[in-house]
Specification:
The protein is α+β, with helices and mostly antiparallel strands and 460 residues long. It is 34% helix and 25% strand.
């Protein structure tokens, strides 16, 4: 059993990890930037160490400072959360060389899935379909144009590293391709320290469906079902649910096939710990491998709610060398769960981040409601990091009950002093097509551009 774990992250995921550690009787060490001195994770941890200035490049992305803090605090392990260094194989290697356990996949496994372009090739070897695209990183405008002409527009330019919708652009012609190529590279370099991008065919009207996996160090791999993450803005998820309405209502046989594909990809990579295999599904029920996220996902709570399995605790136990005590036949699904990401953003100004001080804060509650957050009344949201300030999760015996419970919880959620996505998400939940489970990744753009735009009540 670990005695002390350092949490190399911030915000709600740092709080989530600290809570899991406390339930396992493991002490925690928080690291924080100067801008996060008053953040909740700093208050909840047993120890806290400042590692630098506000910018992530001077704090949460500084491997040397995080390792120094770990050595000062004499920790057994480091949990990277999501984002920042969570998928950095070098960071995992440094942890291993310093005799500190990395709570995540091994450096070898991460190198096997080194980036999204490499992951595509691994999926092909596993016999899992992938969208047509480049074989690796695109180095120049001319190479990008040649690939696009070969596979046909529209195409997606994608960063090989990281996630969260950063470093992604859709191009419909040569002009937008060149612009998107440079923009995606710049954005990826800034966010992940890696400017590499690749190109793949953009699937029109796609559904974004992912499978949660757990893999121990003994070769046991299971999946915990799917999550539908198709409600997105700027290629970043906004609302997620499980089970997927698309699979439930239209393609029920796909669940087993896609689950097997997810496990096969993990096996090919000799993967360990928690991870997520992401797919896109077209309107004809054909699915394609998208990428593998080598970390805990933002939306992991909805899977926890329908399976009863604590994914973060499983991460810690696997890192300690414990075998999975759950087989695939043990995994059962009960009810329906939905998550709304609560972001400090203005939905009517291209989702512009809106940092500032929260004046009034009232969190919803009641049966079937879970809130993972790190903010409170008087908290000042810094402008340096992701704009997500919480995740509201509801669970019900079926989708209708989960939706009704989410509508009620969003109506209760009161945050003043800043703009949020709460009102916009209420509008989504009231949309007839969403209520029927008929939506794709184009849903948000269509809602903002369509005739219902004027009916949206912006309560943010």
């Amino acid at each position: 059993m670990f005695e002390k774990v350092l949490v190399a992250n911030r915000g709600e995921i740092a709080v989530r990890i600290i809570r899991a550690c406390k339930e396992l009787n493991i002490k925690t060490v928080a690291v924080y930037s100067e801008a996060d001195a008053s953040s909740m994770h700093v208050q909840l941890a047993d120890e806290a160490i400042c590692i630098g200035k506000a910018a992530a490049s001077e704090s949460y992305l500084r491997i040397d400072r995080i390792i120094s803090a770990a050595e000062i605090a004499d920790v057994d392990a480091i949990h990277p959360g999501y984002g920042f260094l969570s998928e950095n194989a070098h960071f995992a290697e440094v942890c291993e060389s310093c005799n500190i356990r990395f709570i995540g996949p091994s450096a070898r496994a991460m190198n096997a899935m080194e980036d999204k372009a490499v992951s595509r090739n691994l999926a092909k070897r596993a016999g899992v379909p992938t969208p047509p695209g480049s074989e690796g990183i695109i180095q120049s405008e001319s190479e990008a144009i040649a690939i696009a002409k070969k596979i046909g527009y529209p195409v997606m330019i994608k960063a090989v590293a990281g996630g969260g919708g950063r470093g992604m652009r859709v191009a419909h012609n040569d002009v937008s391709l060149i612009k998107g190529f440079h923009t995606a590279r710049t954005e990826a370099e800034k966010a992940f320290g890696n400017a590499g991008v690749y190109i793949e065919k953009f699937i029109e009207n796609p559904h974004h469906i992912e499978f949660q996996i757990l893999a121990d160090t003994r070769g046991n791999i299971i999946h915990l079902g799917e999550r539908d993450c198709s409600i997105q803005r700027r290629n970043q998820k906004l609302i997620e649910e499980t089970p997927s309405p698309l699979l439930e209502n239209k393609f029920p046989k796909l669940r087993k096939e896609m689950g097997k594909a997810a496990v096969k990809i993990a096996e090919m990579a000799n993967y360990t710990n928690a991870g997520t295999v992401e797919f896109i599904v077209d309107d004809n029920g054909k699915f394609y491998f998208l990428e593998m996220n080598k970390r805990v996902q933002v939306e992991h709570p909805i899977t926890e709610e329908v399976t009863g399995i604590d994914i973060v605790k499983q991460q810690i136990l696997i890192a300690m060398g414990e075998p999975l005590k759950i087989s695939q036949s043990d995994v059962t699904f009960k009810g329906h769960a939905i998550e709304c990401r609560i972001n400090a953003e203005d939905p009517f100004d291209d989702f512009r981040p809106c940092p500032g001080q929260i004046q009034m804060y009232y969190a919803p509650g009641g049966r079937g409601v879970r809130l993972d957050s790190h903010v409170y009344a008087g908290y000042s949201i810094p402008p340096y990091y992701d704009s997500m300030i919480g995740k509201l999760i509801t669970v019900g015996k079926d989708r209708r009950e989960a939706l009704d419970r989410m509508s009620r919880a969003l109506a209760e959620y009161m945050i003043t002093g800043i703009k949020t996505t709460i009102g916009f998400e209420q509008a989504i939940l009231n949309d007839p097509n969403f209520r029927r489970g008929v939506y794709s990744t184009n849903f948000v753009a269509d809602l903002l551009d369509g005739p219902r735009r004027g009916l949206i009540d912006d309560k943010g």
